[in-house]
Amino acid sequence: MSERLRPMRLADLDAVLELEEQLFAPDTWTRAMYRDELSRTDSRSYLVAEDGDRVVGYAGLIAYDDEAHVATIGVAEDRQGEGIGARLLDALLAEADRRSPVVLLEVRADNQVAQELYRRRGFTEVGRRPRYYQPSGTDAVVMKREKL
Ligand SMILES: CC(C)(COP(=O)(O)OP(=O)(O)OC[C@H]1O[C@@H](n2cnc3c(N)ncnc32)[C@H](O)[C@@H]1OP(=O)(O)O)[C@@H](O)C(=O)NCCC(=O)NCCS
Q1: Distance from residue 117's CA to the centre of ligand 1 (Å)
Q2: Crossing angle for the helix pair 84-99 and 112-120, nearest 10 degrees?
Q3: N-acetyltransferase domain: from which residue to which, for each copy (predicted)?
Q4: How many structural domains comprise the chain?
Q5: β 102-108/68-75 pair status
Q6: Top mutation candidate among 21, 51, 113 for ligand 1, by most atoms within 8 Å of CB
Q7: Mean pLDDT by 10 residues, the chain (148 residues)
């Protein structure tokens, strides 16, 4: 496995925004949103997976004392299915377990691959949010994982 995980930096944002467009259009986060997230170092933990000098994946956690939240996770289309997403998620969950008793996330209702990945990591469905993703209007499934 040649890619390594490290904290996301402002200098990664060009690469991250390119992946964001590839993976999440039209419901993409903007550069301003990422800059804001990266500035909140007390509660945010954003990682990239890097292979050589290429960012091939990224993920982010928002963690408070009572609750953590998987904010995003994505792997370049040509590198999916290699275990990178699982490694990013495991790193976020290890951080979440240090900080919060429970982790929540939203996932697109039509995204079976991601839902399965979360289920295998102990998440269960606890609700739905109609038209959560904008501007597409896609529904979200809310999933929750209690610390073991
Ligand atoms: C969801 C995502 C992050 C997973 O990352 P990944 O690197 O492809 O996933 P991994 O290779 O670590 O595989 C994770 C699991 O999903 C399974 N999987 C991966 N791609 C799959 C596919 N196309 N079909 C079925 N299963 C698949 C793997 O077998 C693996 O299962 P395991 O945990 O039992 O071994 C990635 O597919 C992605 O970026 N998707 C688009 C963006 C997205 O949907 N993000 C999640 C938003 S909530």
Answers
A1: 6
A2: 50
A3: 3-148
A4: 1
A5: parallel
A6: 113
A7: 93 98 95 98 97 97 96 98 97 96 97 96 97 93 94
How far, in Å, CA of 62 to CA of 72, rounded? 10
Residue 141, beta-bridge partner list: 107, 128
| Residue 126 DSSP symbol | E
pTM (2 decimals)? Answer: 0.94
**Size (the chain), residues:** 148
**Confidence at residue 1, expressed as pLDDT on a 0 to 100 scale:** 67
**What is the reported pLDDT for 102?**
98
Using a 6 Å cutoff on CB, does residue 80 contact ligand 1? Answer: yes
Rounded distance from Cα 13 to ligand 1 centre (Å) = 22
Distance 111 CA to ligand 1 centre (A): 10
Look up the CATH number of the domain holding residue 63: 3.40.630.30
